[in-house]
Specification:
CATH topology of the largest domain: Heat Shock Protein 90
Shape: rod-shaped
Strand content: 15-25%
Distance between the termini: 35 Å
CATH superfamily of the largest domain: Histidine kinase-like ATPase, C-terminal domain
Number of strands: 18
């Protein structure tokens, strides 16, 4: 991945992560705010429910007290206190009194619990109410919640009980009002909220109740109503109602009516308890999640749009930044490659004053210093090379010149001292002179060969063939009589492909390395020749088991005219290095004292273009 793509990826990732983090933070904050608002609205609605409940309880209590304090009721109580009492004369009185005082429920009950008259269920005349006989001072009790029986089932009622005393006889006035949708309609509901009432056994009793339980196993039978009547989706609320009933406390759950999150509602269920804290019904407060869902959807849409715009801006900005940064960097890279190839005069333009411009100016200063150092180094190397050449040439020429001088002096003395023996001395001296002159020609020829190393003439060459050809010339020396034997170990890669090289120059380099290895093993040893195919070319390794070299000797080994032998010009390894370098390859030496020496040559497949 190039720098431009990396920069684009960084910009895009930064935008996406930032927008996602902001969107998540805003969504979380919005959700928390909605939860707090929902809790506040629910609490307000519950408080209003409690106020309305208390108001209606006071109203029911006043109306029942009004009936109990009426003269007509007192006359009825006196009439019923006679013995025997005629209850049938008053069987319809409760209906009229309930209508007159706007009560949904009203029963007149004798002190033994017998129902004298019932407005809500006239057929209950003569039945007994067991609870009325409880030792309670009903005159001081307020209204209470009660499940009241009606002909079609049961109803949730807010009831009050007052007593009319005549002598030792009592007449109980029990009246109340329904807790139903009319009660819910009296509540002021905030937008997005609704109130429901659940009343067990309100819609089913007897065989019908059993059928309801069969249809909804595990859920309490009953009815859920809102201000418009029975709630059509009550089945989904039953598990929540059942949980609140089992735990005898409030319960909260979000109900999803459809797959659309906007239709979800959060319901708070508040149990409604009777006089003995038994749960008689449930008050449900529903809060719509539509506003929150739509706001979260809007936030996500805005986040996606912002992220898209940010990515587009990131593409443009990254492209601009990348072109501004990468173009000078690419120029520097190209200039660095030219410097690596030997062009130290290359320069790059420093068009800005920022870090890139400083880098360009530093690069130009570096190349300028390299050129100056190279010039000084070349001059110093030339002086050192000429000095070394003069020293080596003087050393090599001094050896044959001394015999020449002695021979000429012998001739002069022979001529002056004994002319008769001059011919014999002359012949011996001439032979000596010719031999030493031949030595001089050999020395001059070696230096001349090194000075005019030819450029490689590239052609397809199999390095294995070159190695075998060079080794063949030394086979006689390996088993020569009177010399320590030298064992050869040949490990040539048969899959080695041809390379572009000069076969004569490679042959000459191989000869010099093999000869150098033989000279390093005067007491015999093992000569190893190995070739291997590599991804970048081929590798040739020539090793011996001779006395080895020190680290300092290895560092100077390829220096012209440097030698560790008692004889030789010190040009053999310098010629090898020149051949390898002309082919675009590399040569290295690995050696330790008394552990032998290995020369490793790496040659490219294509060779170096001249």
């Amino acid at each position: 991945m190039n720098f431009r793509r990396k920069l684009l990826a960084v910009f895009a990732l930064t935008v996406i992560v930032s927008v996602a983090l902001v969107a998540w933070t805003v969504s979380s904050s919005t959700g928390d705010a909605f939860e707090r608002l929902d809790s506040q609205r629910t609490a307000a609605l519950v408080a209003e429910f409690q106020r309305e409940f208390a108001r209606r309880a006071d109203e029911v209590t006043r109306r029942v007290e009004g009936i109990a304090n009426a003269d007509e009721t007192l006359r009825m109580a006196v009439d019923l206190s006679r013995t025997p009492a005629d209850y049938s004369a008053h069987v319809d009185d409760a209906t009229g009194l309930a209508a007159a005082h706007q009560l949904d429920f009203l029963e007149l009950i004798a002190d033994d619990g017998t129902i004298i008259s019932s407005a809500q269920w006239p057929a209950r005349f003569g039945y007994k109410e067991e609870w009325i006989a409880e030792p309670v001072n009903w005159s001081t009790e307020g209204a209470f919640l009660k499940r009241e029986g009606v002909p079609d089932g049961a109803a949730l009622a807010l009831m009050a009980d007052r007593t009319v005393n005549v002598g030792d006889k009592k007449l109980f006035i029990v009246g109340g009002r329904r807790l139903d949708r009319d009660f819910l309609a009296s509540l002021v509901l905030p937008a997005g909220m609704r109130a429901l009432l659940y009343s067990p056994d309100a819609a089913a009793s007897g065989p019908e109740r059993t059928l309801s339980q069969l249809r909804n196993p595990g859920t309490p039978p009953g009815a859920v109503v809102d201000v418009s009547g029975p709630f059509p989706q009550a089945a989904k609320l039953m598990p929540l109602i059942s949980r609140a009933e089992h735990q005898a406390g409030e319960a909260v759950e979000t109900i999803k009516w459809t797959s659309d999150p906007a239709t979800a509602e959060t319901f708070h269920v508040i149990p409604l308890a009777g006089r003995h804290q038994e749960i008689l019904g449930m008050f449900l407060v529903g809060s719509s999640r539509r506003e929150q869902a739509e706001l979260e959807k809007y936030i996500r849409s805005v986040a996606i749009i912002v992220a898209g715009v940010g990515i587009l801006l990131g593409v443009a900005l990254s492209g601009w930044a990348a072109s501004r940064v990468t173009r000078p960097v690419e120029q520097l890279a190209a200039a660095s490659r030219q410097v690596a190839e030997g062009n130290w005069n290359v320069r790059v333009k420093a068009e800005s004053s920022d870090e890139i411009g400083q880098l360009a100016r530093a690069f130009n200063q570096m190349t300028q210093h390299l050129v100056e150092q190279r010039d000084r180094l070349v001059q110093a190397e030339r002086v050192a090379a000429w000095r070394e050449l003069a020293r080596r040439l003087a050393h090599e020429l001094k050896n044959p010149l001394f015999p020449l001088q002695i021979t000429v002096e012998n001739l002069l003395r022979a001529r002056e001292c004994d002319p008769a023996q001059f011919d014999e001395v002359f012949r011996e001296s001439a032979t000596t002179l010719l031999a030493e002159l031949a030595t001089l020609r050999t020395i001059i020829g070696r230096f001349s060969d090194f000075a005019k190393m030819p450029a490689p003439q590239l052609q397809p060459v199999n390095v294995n063939d070159v190695v075998r050809g060079a080794l063949r010339l030394f086979e006689a020396q390996f088993t020569a009589a009177g010399k320590p034997p030298i064992t050869t170990k040949i490990d040539l890669d048969d899959k080695l492909g041809p390379i572009q090289a000069d076969p004569d120059l490679l042959h000459r380099a191989a000869l010099n390395l093999i000869l150098n290895a033989l000279d390093a093993m005067p007491a015999g040893g093992t000569l190893t020749l190995r070739t291997r195919q590599r991804a970048s070319g081929i590798r040739l390794e020539i090793s011996d088991t001779g006395k080895g070299l020190t680290k300092e000797e290895c560092e100077r080994l390829f220096t012209p005219y440097y030698t560790t032998k008692q004889h030789g010009t010190g040009l053999g390894l310098a010629i090898v290095q020149s051949v390898v370098s002309d082919h675009g390859g590399k040569i290295a030496v690995e050696s330790e004292p008394e552990r032998g020496t290995s020369f490793v040559i790496d040659l490219p497949v294509e060779g170096r273009k001249q």
